[in-house]
Every structure is written in structure tokens, then in C-alpha cells.
Amino acid sequence: MALNFMGRKLRNHTIAPATKQRAWETTNLSKFPDDSPGLTRATQTRPTVTVLEELPGSVPDLREDVKRCQPCTIHNTRLDPDTDTGKIRVFCRIRPLNRAEGMKGSNFIVSCLDDYSVVLETPRGQREFQFDRIFNAESTQEEVFQDSSRLIQSAIDGYNVCIFAYGQTGSGKTFTMVGDKERKNPGIIPRTFTKIFDIIQENQSKFEFKVSAYMLELYNDRLQDLFVSPAEAFGKKIEIKKDKKGLVFAQGAETKEAASAGELFALFEQGCANRHIAATKMNMESSRSHLIVGIMVESRNLTNGSVSFGKISLVDLAGSERAARTGAKDDQLKEANSINKSLSALGDVISALSTEQPHVPYRNNKLTQAMQDSLGGNAKTLMFVNISPAACNMEETLTSLIYATRVKAITNNAQRNMDNREIAQLKEVILKLRTGQPVEEEDV
Ligand SMILES: Nc1ncnc2c1ncn2[C@@H]1O[C@H](COP(=O)(O)OP(=O)(O)OP(=O)(O)O)[C@@H](O)[C@H]1O
């Protein structure tokens, strides 16, 4: 425990030795170019800039992280109070101060009171926000994943799950969802792949599993299939549809099967190579599109023949931003306008849901159509609101925290997607008939 600059108790904050901090300030601040996006570990001791040592670059050992996660509960009908309350859960992650902010001498204006409360200093006074969990600049990717990973278990149990990241450009959404560029600090998406196959391995004597995935980006109001080359994707029309249960699927998108976490990761890497990324003034490698990864897990109970279907949607939203601040021009301005249009449509949906309006404008944008079953629908949803700690980003941070507070008020109705043996058999027969395969007598 320590006291922060407002005299409140701080938890989970490592206080830097003042000498180390001063040494860094005098020797390193002048090294960075003006718009360098690189980050250093930052710790807050007082309302001035404190930027510390480089992040450790350890090679990830995902298996160890996964082992630490809670034990497998596949097909256990007991409700998990953390994930079955119906409300969308919201985690807030504060990233370390980056070099550009350090160079500007930008003050820290964000502090955690405890694991659940965050305080923002604004010109009109302090604003306090409560979330289901706060992760500070010191929080590791392992810690962040540990708190999210029980949702992966839910998906394997037959629920729809959505994890998405929201925040201004450069606030750490891609770092949280995907990880760093060097793949030394993998984020939620690669950790999810490992976790899925670890659960499968533990249960393969009792269940038969099938894992498949699709990967899309929403770029300039157009959905693009990332599993095909940009040239092939150009002529392809992807449409978001809903099945009878209200579950969203991407019609026209390639769905690929994967037999291991490695295969799933290879597919993901292939998809990432097809994404639109550009340098803006705010972030050297800014995602100019929304990324949507859908992973379907089908599991057949080998004893009673019942089949359950779970889907995990992992969404890395493009940054909310003011075009003027990002230095966008021409094509980039068009991208920024399209990003803002879709995020504002998402805001309208969130606002309608949180105030229980009879009409929710999902159809206004492809992003809200794609996220329809995750917001107010049949899914267990977790949102990350990523924020910068710096005074120069105060307005965007305040907007993001208000946005996230509204999301917290949304109630979903998560239900397990399950068919008994007979229905599962009939579905198989229909599939065989549709694809022209012979149907044997024992199939029916
Ligand atoms: N918690 C963190 N710890 C260490 N580095 C971080 C953290 N969060 C973000 N970064 C780094 O900050 C930079 C910007 O982060 P990132 O690309 O994730 O932002 P973003 O919100 O996805 O931006 P955009 O919307 O423009 O794509 C990256 O270099 C990233 O590695």
C-alpha cells in the first residue's frame, strides 16, 4: 500500500526509487524522437511525469499461464457468479506513459484507488469511475488474461462469448487483444488459442471437439475476409446474418478448421498480414479497421451424444479519435471518418441498451450488426476500456470512461447453445443431404 498524490491509498502500484527515476529523466528523455510511440514502464509517485525502465522482453510461456488458470469445468451446469450475472463486465486498463507523452512533460492524471475504482483529474475536478476490474500500467498480460480466461471455458461449455477492446488511438487496445509487435507479450487472442486447446486436451476422453474460425476486418464501411488475399477479398461480399437463435454469423466469409493452438495462431498471423494498418501522429502502427475474430467450438458428448456450440468473438476496435489530432488527410481522413461513424453507431446502440429503449439501432452500421449478439444479446461479454494516463489525452480518456460506464449497465441474456442427441443427428443428416453426401439408415 502507498499513498498517491491525492493522499489516497493505492494498491498494486510499485513506487519507483526516486534515484532511479531521476537518473532516467536526466539520461534518457532527450533520446526519443518527438513522435516516438515506444513505451516504457511507468509508475506514478506524484502528479509529474515519471517514466521508468524499458519493459522486460521475456519470451512467453503460455502453458504456464494457462496452468495457473482455474480448473476445467466443462459442461458443469453450476453458474459462475462472475460470468453469469447478465451484465456486461467492463475492465479498465491504464497503459504506461509513452515516450511522446514523456517528452511533452505530460502529467499523470489517472490513478487507481483500488482494484475497482479509477480517478481522473479534469479541469472541473476529480471524476471517479467504477469497473469490474482496473489494470494499471504495471499489470502484466498474464494477469489481464487470467481474469478473462474463465470466459473461454464458458465458450467451450456452449455459450457465446465476446471480448472487445475500446479506447482512443494508441491507448493499448491491440496490445491488450493481440500483444506487442515482437510477440514477446502476447495478448488475449493468442492466449485464448492456447487455452481452448488446453481445455480440449483435458477433456478429449469424454468429448469430441471441432474448432473453426473466421477473421474479418471492417474497413471503410466494408467487411473484408482476412483469410483470403486482399485481391481475392475485393470481389467478395460478406454479409452479417442472424440465425434463428439470434446468433450472428458472417455469410460469405471463409471458415477454417484448426486442430491445434499452433494452427489457429498460424491462421491468425496469415489474417493479420492482410490488415490495414497505418502510422498516424498518435500511433506509429495504428489499426485503421475493426478486427473481428470468430472462433467456433463444437463439442459432442461421447456418452450421451448431446452437442454444444460455443462461439468466441474477439474484437479489437479501431481507435476513437479526433481526426485533427491524428494528422489524418485524404485516404486517412476517409478511414478516420468511417471509424468514427461506426463507433458513434456503437455508442448509439450502447446508449439505447443502457437506457432500455424499445428500439436499438443495430442496423445502422456493419459494426453494430456484427456485435449484435454480444451487446444486449445471447452472449457473455467483456469489454476492455483502454486509456492513457497522460494529461494531454484527458478529453478522450473522459469520453472513453463515460462510454464504458454506459456499457456496464447493459444486460445480456446468455444461454447455452445445446442440442440433444436426436436433434444433433438430424442436423447432421440435413447437412449430408445439402452437401450431396449419402445418408445411411443408421444416420436416422
Ligand atoms: N500496457 C502496455 N504495456 C506496454 N506497452 C503498451 C501497453 N499498452 C500499449 N502499449 C504500446 O503502446 C503502443 C500503442 O498501443 P496499441 O497499438 O495497442 O494502441 P491501440 O489502442 O491499438 O491503437 P490504434 O487504435 O491506433 O490501433 C504500442 O507500441 C504498444 O505496444
UniProtKB/TrEMBL annotation:
<keyword id="KW-0505">Motor protein</keyword>
<feature type="domain" description="Kinesin motor">
    <location>
        <begin position="87"/>
        <end position="410"/>
    </location>
</feature>
<keyword id="KW-0067">ATP-binding</keyword>
<dbReference type="Pfam" id="PF00225">
    <property type="entry name" value="Kinesin"/>
</dbReference>
<dbReference type="InterPro" id="IPR019821">
    <property type="entry name" value="Kinesin_motor_CS"/>
</dbReference>
<dbReference type="GO" id="GO:0005524">
    <property type="term" value="F:ATP binding"/>
</dbReference>
<feature type="binding site">
    <location>
        <begin position="167"/>
        <end position="174"/>
    </location>
    <ligand>
        <name>ATP</name>
    </ligand>
</feature>
<keyword id="KW-0493">Microtubule</keyword>
<keyword id="KW-0547">Nucleotide-binding</keyword>
<dbReference type="GO" id="GO:0003777">
    <property type="term" value="F:microtubule motor activity"/>
</dbReference>
<dbReference type="GO" id="GO:0007018">
    <property type="term" value="P:microtubule-based movement"/>
</dbReference>
<dbReference type="GO" id="GO:0005874">
    <property type="term" value="C:microtubule"/>
</dbReference>
<dbReference type="GO" id="GO:0048731">
    <property type="term" value="P:system development"/>
</dbReference>
<dbReference type="InterPro" id="IPR036961">
    <property type="entry name" value="Kinesin_motor_dom_sf"/>
</dbReference>
<dbReference type="InterPro" id="IPR027417">
    <property type="entry name" value="P-loop_NTPase"/>
</dbReference>
<dbReference type="InterPro" id="IPR027640">
    <property type="entry name" value="Kinesin-like_fam"/>
</dbReference>
<keyword id="KW-0963">Cytoplasm</keyword>
<comment type="similarity">
    <text>Belongs to the TRAFAC class myosin-kinesin ATPase superfamily. Kinesin family.</text>
</comment>
<protein>
    <recommendedName>
        <fullName>Kinesin-like protein</fullName>
    </recommendedName>
</protein>
<dbReference type="InterPro" id="IPR001752">
    <property type="entry name" value="Kinesin_motor_dom"/>
</dbReference>
<keyword id="KW-0206">Cytoskeleton</keyword>
<dbReference type="GO" id="GO:0008017">
    <property type="term" value="F:microtubule binding"/>
</dbReference>
